[in-house]
Structure formats: structure tokens, C-alpha cells
Amino acid sequence: MSTKLKGTRSGHRSALTRLLRRFDDVKSNEEFDRDELSTILDLIIDKQRYLSDLNTQIISELSEEELEAEISDSDEYSITLETKIRKMRKFLEPTARTSYSLPVTDSSLNPLAQSFDVNRNQTASFNSQLIGGLKKIQIFQDFPPDPPIKRHEPML
């Protein structure tokens, strides 16, 4: 049975190698399709899980003499594959994160200037609305209170 499982694993490793090659080919194109790369990565991760299950089944059927070599081989392949997957994920991360770390080349910027606060305008607007509202409340408090309403009893 382990021979059949090893053959199945070998076939999936070959398919995985083709997927890895395809990822690299698509990535090397200047105008690569991020969705296609993401789909290929998803397939690679599915294959990784399936191979992990196969490895577990293979190991459970091996004799003690074969275990060490099989575990070593499986672990080495898994480490290599996981490293490639992490690099792929990193490559597919949104580029917006890295755009903030671009070097500033304009020498007319003042290095002593205060830091830029994106929310400053929103905060100032909110504060002016709050102060305007408080002034209106103050105006109403400056007026004397209304005199009490006298009710007249109807005369009988």
C-alpha cells in the first residue's frame, strides 16, 4: 500500500513543481495578472495540504527501518515548499504597504517641520463645530429665564 501512496505523492509533487514553474512564469511577465497568481498560490497550498496528509499515511505504514529516511525526506521537501509559499505570499501583498517606505527625493522639504497628521483637518472641523454649538448654548443661558406662567382660575 505504501508503494501506491508514494506513487501518488510523486505525481502530486510533479504537479506541484509545474504549478511553481507556472507561478514564476506569470510573475516574470511585466503586466502579470495578480488574480491568476493568487489562484495558482491557492492551488499550491491545496497541494501542500494533500501532500502533508499523504506523508502522514505513508509514515503510518512504514517499518521502523524506513521511518527516519522518510521523515527526513518529507520534512526537507515541506520546508522548501513552505519557504517558496511564504515568498509568494510576500510577493502578492498589496503594494500600498511598501509605497510608504519610498525615499523622499525632494530636497525642498523642511526636515524640522512638524509631522503630518492626516486627521488634523477633520479634528479641526469637529472642534469648530463643537465650539460653535457651545457658543449657542451659552447665548441661551445668558437670557433670563421665562417668568412663570400664571394660571387664572375661572370665576364662578
**Proportion of β residues?**
under 5%
Share of residues in helices: over 70%
**Separation, N- and C-terminal Cα atoms:** 113 Å
Shape: elongated
Number of strands: 0
Number of DSSP helical runs: 5
Low-confidence stretches: 96-101
Largest sheet: none
Mean of residue pLDDT values: 78
Find the structural class using helix and strand composition.
Answer: mainly alpha
Gyration radius, in Å: 35 Å
Order of helices and strands: HHHHH
Q: What characteristics describe this protein?
A:
single chain, 156 residues, mainly alpha, elongated
Description:
The chain is 71% helix and 0% strand. The protein is elongated. Helix 1 (2-28) packs antiparallel against helix 2 (34-61) and helix 2 packs antiparallel against helix 3. 4% of the residues are buried. The protein contains 5 helices and no strands. Residues 96-101 have low confidence and may be disordered. It is an all-alpha fold.
Blueprint of the fold:
Blueprint: H1 2-28, H2 34-61, H3 64-92, H4 96-99, H5 120-142
Brief description of this entry?
The protein is mostly helical and 156 residues long.
